[in-house]
Amino acid sequence: MKFYRQLYLNQLFFACILVIIVGFAVSFIFPALYMVVWYAFFALMTFVLLDILILFGKARGVIGHRTVPEKFSNGDQNDVLLTIENNYTFNIFTTTIDEIPFQFQLRNFSIKQKIKPRKVIDFSYSLRPLERGEYVFGNLNIYVSSPLRLVARRFTFGANEMVPTYPGFLQLKKYDLLAFSNNLHQYGTKKIRRVGYSMEFEQIKEYVQGDDIRTLNWKATAKKNALMVNQYQTERSQTIYMVIDKGRVMKMPFNDLSLLDYAINATLVLSNIILKKEDRAGMLTFSKKVENRVVAEKRGSQMNKLLEALYNVETNFQESDFGRLYIDIKKHIQHRSLIMLYTNFETMDGLYRQLPYLKGIAKNHLLVVVFFQNTELHDMVSQKARNVQEVYDKAIAEKFIFEKKLIVNELRKYGIYSLLTRPEDLTVDSINKYLEIKTRGLI
Prior knowledge:
single chain, 443 residues, alpha/beta, Immunoglobulin-like, Rossmann fold, 3 domains, six-stranded mixed β-sheet, five-stranded antiparallel β-sheet
């Protein structure tokens, strides 16, 4: 039974059989071809038997191995490495079919290779997960054909292998470098002019044109007989909390990722920047109740805590309770902190229902409400209307886009900062907002 399970007939075999069948049909018209076709049939069977003996003559003719990352990064391209070793003494032709997790819905995946005798080759393919959770790989199937290519032998390797998918941690190094090299303006932002200064003393230096004369140190000036100024640095060990709304408004998908996943990826990257800036990073999620709380700290293990907390966050399709969030923040976050609230408001009515709680949070903390542009509406508005229905659609889309701008103005009236961004730009815009607030000394 094992032999029959491993044996497969290639397309070349069926093509030859088809030619022989046609030959038998033609031999009814030309009887002289009858024996020639029989000889051709026997020759084909001989080559088939020879091909089977060649392929099944070695027990471990091919060895295959799959190497997967310890964990996948959600929303990023993750490489899977395949290794095939040819133990035959002739060239082989392989078709590799990896049983990819069902979440990817790849039903025609195959890779064809030609491998020289006694050689080992490595090749890889990329997978882009769009959901956090567990991804289970099945068997690695390698179909091997000899140079005759009439039949194939299947080799199967690897049992079920589970790979957890975490929030997009592959972006950490990318944005880490950008944040500390001041190159974020290349992504559509601009440099921020420093307004004022913090009171954390760094050093005394000689005055140069452009220094703030209010920082003149008269005692040092008298001693050095030259103008000396105090230099201050941005205050450290400030507390920043990322608050993620996991209600139904965050389930809306853009480019295959939900708003919740965009917020989770941005939270992870921003937390890494915050810790590198020697501030304290914390987070919590909320819907009907507050969950997944990670107290703001700057320990070396903080990133692991945040990663584990974000791993299983899911939308519960309920209306988020901002009142419970307000009570929880008032109870558990005693010191003035920067709170980055990731949520979404589509209409002014939606904002007005939650505005009293946002104002309450903003009384004791620096609140930044992060919500999203609907890029599909922007695409609709940019297209030319071709009929009356599309004119109506464009008018409604423009109304919703305008309401987003009204929401920004309404929040500004009550001293609440806001960030209206496209989902794909959320990470870099969040980092820029944090750096702007740090530079301006608002916390």
